[in-house]
Specification:
This protein has helices spanning about 25-35, 40-45, 75-80, 95-110, 140-155, 190, 205-210, 220-240, 290-300, 315-330, 340-355, 360-375, 380-400, 400-405, 410-415; strands at about 15, 45-55, 60-65, 80-85, 115-120, 120-125, 130, 250-255, 260-265, 280, 285-290. With about 425 residues, the protein is an alpha+beta fold.
Length: about 425
């Protein structure tokens, strides 16, 4: 079925500031940013304060508040601003123009806080009041139902953003290929050829671009890159053309729906609800993708960075999540009949199950690149092996080689097979 086949570009509704955040002098540079955006914060009564958040492993996130006399905490929070400075090296993996465009369009559709400004190495946007989730929170039914409800709204309401000269770098200028000589840098056509009949960029072209950027200085690296290229092509052939929700099987997807990107809104004094209201933040990886990929990727995040497979949702929980998702999806778009909601829920459950190994391939390739460029104290190389093993375990289950060789089913596959 199709919902929002149109593609459009968001007009920038934010300021561009010729300033940057300096992590070595964080408070002073953050103050300069916020006073440039809000000059009255310097002259009006009340202190300017900064609160540092530590969620995530790549970016610096600061909350700036103006403690105006007589304001309640809620009024202060409503006036607060988040300053997100990008981690060093992350620009090679993320199209920052596209991220800003996505953020603006999400805001126009009521799905994101207002983007106020871009500075040279980050963004400033309105603060969302609420509780940042931890991995264990994703397993709570009140919260996962809220996530299902909101993710379906994203997929049903958001248009796919078309590529344009202002949002798609020419490959010769792309920082991801900065280490390659110009004659070896892939063309946009080479990147997009992984899905020649689909609008680009999409999750498949992103993975193709990352594979092109993998280091190939040793024979082992060359062979690994060839193997991953073969697996990407195989996965695209198996899954990319399955008819599904959205325009040509693609919906606007978050693609990084880990716990720290889920905010649970505060509730009033009304009766306790069986479903929380949530919002999503951080749209760095947002791009058109199959709905099944976004869902499978979110389910994988129930295990957190530690990849605690015992925390992953069982079949019955995934089924209930997807039924909640489809009820929300059908409330935001038109299905032929109420019975179709159940039909699509069953179909989507099967699709998500078929995609359960793909997030391992996606984040495994990502982590291999991070291992070569990141200055963050995180063992990306080991993380890459763990995530890629998820992909290989899924393949061995799908093609029957694990059972044929008499090996024990891996813990992740055991958990996802539980009813």
């Amino acid at each position: 079925m199709s919902n929002h086949g149109s593609k459009l570009n968001a007009e920038p509704g934010y300021r561009r500031l010729p300033l940057s955040h300096n992590s070595a002098d964080s408070q002073a540079s953050a103050l300069r940013l916020v006073l440039t955006l809000f000059p009255d914060w310097e002259t009006a009564d009340g202190k300017v304060e900064f609160i540092r958040f530590k969620e995530g492993i790549t970016n610096t996130l600061l909350k700036a508040v103006k403690r105006r006399p007589g304001y309640t905490e809620k009024q202060i929070d409503d006036d607060a601003v988040l300053i997100r400075a990008y981690g060093k090296g992350t620009d090679v993996l993320i199209d920052r123009e596209r991220e800003s465009q996505s953020h603006s369009l999400l805001y126009k559709n009521g799905l994101a806080p207002e983007l106020l400004a871009r500075f040279q190495n980050g963004l400033m946007y309105r603060f969302i009041c609420g509780q940042v989730c931890e991995s264990r929170n994703l397993t709570e039914e009140r919260i996962w139902r809220g996530v299902a409800h909101r993710l379906a709204e994203w997929h049903a309401v958001m248009p796919l953003i078309s590529a344009s000269p202002s949002t798609t770098m020419e490959s010769t200028d792309d920082p991801l290929f900065g280490q390659l000589p110009s004659q070896k840098r892939p063309s946009p056509e080479a990147i997009n050829s992984i899905t020649p009949n689909k609008a680009a960029p999409n999750v498949w072209t992103v993975m193709q671009k990352w594979i092109f950027a993998l280091p190939t200085t040793t024979e082992a690296e060359i062979q690994r890159t060839k193997t991953l290229q073969k697996e990407l092509e195989r996965t695209v052939a198996d899954l990319a053309d399955i008819p599904s929700l959205g325009s040509d099987g693609l919906v606007f997807s978050h693609c990084d729906l880990l716990s720290g990107n889920v905010i649970v809104h505060p509730r009033g004094s009304a009766e306790p609800s069986s479903i929380e209201t949530v919002s999503f933040i951080d749209y760095e990886y947002a791009t058109p993708a199959p709905a099944a990929f976004d869902l499978a990727n979110h389910f994988a995040e129930w295990g957190g960075f530690e990849c605690d497979y015992k925390a992953l949702p069982t079949r019955s929980v995934r089924r209930a999540f997807i039924e909640e998702y489809m009820a929300s999806y059908s409330s935001h778009t038109t299905l032929p009949s109420k019975s179709d909601e159940k039909t699509y829920a069953k179909q989507l459950f099967d699709e998500v199950d078929a995609y359960r190994g793909v997030p391992g391939l996606y984040w495994g390739i990502w982590a291999l690149i991070q291992a070569t460029i990141s200055q963050i104290d995180f063992d990306y190389a080991s993380y890459a092996e763990v995530r890629l093993q998820e992909y290989w375990d899924w393949r061995a289950e799908e093609n029957g080689t694990r059972a044929k060789e008499g090996r024990e089913m891996p813990l992740r596959e055991q958990r996802l097979a539980e009813e």
